[in-house]
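To: structure desk
From: M.T.
Subject: fold request, one chain
Message: Could you run this one when you get a chance? Sequence is below, nothing fancy, just the single chain.
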Amino acid sequence: MWREARLAFTDSLAALDCSVVPAHPWIHGLGQQTDNGAYLSPVNAIHYLAERLAGTGGNTDVVIMMVTGQTHENFMKGLN
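Reply: Done. Structure tokens follow.
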């Protein structure tokens, strides 16, 4: 079940290297445009990210966070 949550990291978290690999409905060929706006299903997002991350090589830890919004503006506000 999806739910809204706020995540925070403590100051005691060890330093780490990370990258952001976006998957959103405004990527050409990934999302669907409907009368109600742009849409990207979680399943399609996972498949897209799996393809993008397949070439990283070695073992990696991956965290995926899903942010939703009714409009592009609402979506961008959800990232803050």
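Reply (cont.): Strands lie at 32-34, 37-39. Let me know if you need anything else for the meeting.
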